[in-house]
């Protein structure tokens, strides 16, 4: 839904201000770079909450940049006489440059973790995370020449033929962009969040329709070329029928591919729900089993209570020895995007379990920080653990929240 809103707003912006953007392109580039720099380097606690939300949900995640790239790629397949195409065509190169400059935000924000791990410790990445990181690097490599040659001063020094050949790399870029998006949203499907499934449907529809329209345009161009060059027998060559047959075939192929991606995404989403239910059932069974054991132990204690009247309580001994008092406690801290709440269970003087009750941080960072930090605390039975490289803010927030739950800090 954020993508649709960005597409509407950006389409209006570029059509309404196409003359100003064309005339003062360098000013818009400078503004784009400044926004990117401020987004990356200015501490978020110095910014208003709505600005932080826009940065984290729209800019850092690449929704804003992706929307501009989508507009750029659709300009070429819009009806040639439409006013929308005429206005957007005037600033197509400028839009591509602005989108490329804004990608600095996304690449630096995520690259400082995923690119670093890709080259230093690839085993720390999930397979789809490693694949997404590789695709990102490939896109950056493609984006550099595409962006440089979009500048008017560079473009006018190239022959039209060579420039067009180079710009064909954009088709590969768009394909990699779509695959990258699907891989990233796959994590969301495993967390059973419906928004990610809807997003995959929307992106699949947008990129699928574009691909079909691009192929259809190529078919029409090829048919017209056959007639103009005399390669086809004009008497026997029926251009409309040729175009229609090829169009139906290409549309059917892309429709099947789109349907396949949607079915696969729905299956992953559904499977995640089943696995979640199984885990919940197993956890409940384990809890019931523990409760039964505790009940049996209490019964034994009641029968032998007279022998233990003068003995100190075992839980008090463990609590004193390890420094934790039995019970379930909650603590909170401020994460990357907002408040984070944890629940800490202490049994027998030891930290038994840590659960995340609430968080609003980005999943791509948060889940890795959660898994590593909680595991470290449980293993060491201490909150004196290391943070997680690339997800420092989320990791530090979890550690701080656990400390507050245990009363180590206020």
Describe the structure.
The protein has 410 residues and is mainly alpha-helical. The chain folds into 2 domains: 2-276, no CATH class; 314-405, Alpha-Beta Complex (Sufe protein. Chain: A). 72% of the residues lie in helices and 6% in strands. It contains 16 helices and 3 strands. A 3-stranded antiparallel β-sheet has the order 1-2-3. Strand 2 and strand 3 form a beta hairpin. The longest helix has 65 residues, at 239-303. The chain is elongated.
The share of residues in helices is: over 70%
Query: From the helix content, strand content and strand pairing, which structural class follows?
Result: mainly alpha
> How many separate domains make up the residues?
2
Poorly predicted spans:
275-287, 304-321
- The share of residues in extended strands comes to 5-15%
The shape, in one word, is elongated
The N- to C-terminal Cα distance equals 39 Å
What Rg, in angstroms, do the CA atoms define?
A: 29 Å
Helix count, per DSSP?
Answer: 16
Order of helices and strands: HHHHHHHHHHHHHHEEEHH
The averaged pLDDT comes out at: 80
Order of adjacent strands in the largest pleated sheet? 1-2-3
What is the total tally of β strands? 3
Largest sheet: 3 strands, antiparallel
Brief write-up:
The protein is mainly alpha-helical and 410 residues long. The chain has 16 helices and three strands. It has a three-stranded antiparallel sheet.
């Amino acid at each position: 839904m954020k993508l649709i809103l960005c597409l509407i707003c950006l389409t209006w912006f570029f059509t309404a201000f196409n003359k100003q953007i064309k005339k003062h392109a360098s000013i818009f580039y400078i503004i784009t770079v400044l926004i990117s720099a401020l987004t990356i380097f200015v501490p978020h606690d110095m910014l208003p909450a709505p600005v932080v939300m826009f940065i984290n949900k729209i800019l850092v995640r690449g929704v804003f940049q992706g929307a501009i790239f989508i507009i750029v790629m659709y300009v070429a397949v819009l009806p040639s006489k439409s006013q929308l195409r005429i206005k957007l065509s005037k600033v197509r190169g400028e839009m591509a440059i602005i989108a490329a400059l804004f990608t600095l935000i996304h690449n630096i924000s995520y690259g400082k973790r995923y690119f670093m791990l890709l080259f230093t410790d690839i085993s720390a990445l999930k397979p789809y995370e490693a694949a997404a990181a590789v695709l990102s690097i490939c896109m950056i490599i493609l984006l550099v020449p595409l962006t440089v040659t979009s500048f008017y001063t560079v473009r006018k020094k190239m022959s039209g033929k060579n420039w067009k050949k180079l710009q064909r790399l954009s088709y590969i870029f768009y394909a990699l962009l779509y695959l990258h998006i699907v891989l990233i949203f796959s994590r969301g499907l495993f967390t059973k969040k419906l928004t990610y499934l809807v997003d995959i449907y929307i992106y699949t529809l947008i990129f699928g329709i574009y691909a079909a329209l691009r192929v259809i345009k190529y078919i029409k161009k090829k048919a017209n070329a056959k007639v103009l060059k005399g390669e086809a027998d004009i008497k026997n060559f029926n251009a409309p029928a040729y175009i229609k047959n090829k169009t139906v075939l290409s549309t059917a192929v892309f429709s099947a591919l789109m349907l396949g991606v949607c079915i696969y995404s729905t299956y992953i989403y559904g499977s995640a729900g089943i696995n979640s239910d199984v885990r919940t059932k197993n956890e409940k069974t384990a809890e019931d089993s523990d409760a039964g054991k505790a009940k049996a132990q209490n019964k034994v204690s009641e029968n032998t209570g007279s022998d233990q009247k003068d003995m100190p309580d075992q839980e008090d001994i463990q609590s004193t020895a390890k420094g934790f008092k039995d019970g379930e406690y909650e603590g909170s801290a401020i994460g990357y995007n907002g408040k984070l709440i944890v629940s800490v269970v202490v049994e027998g003087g030891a930290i038994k379990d840590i659960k995340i009750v609430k968080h609003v941080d980005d999943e791509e960072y948060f889940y890795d920080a959660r898994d590593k930090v909680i595991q470290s605390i449980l293993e060491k039975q201490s909150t004196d653990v290391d943070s997680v490289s690339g997800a420092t803010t989320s990791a530090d927030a979890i550690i701080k929240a656990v400390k507050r739950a245990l009363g180590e800090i206020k």
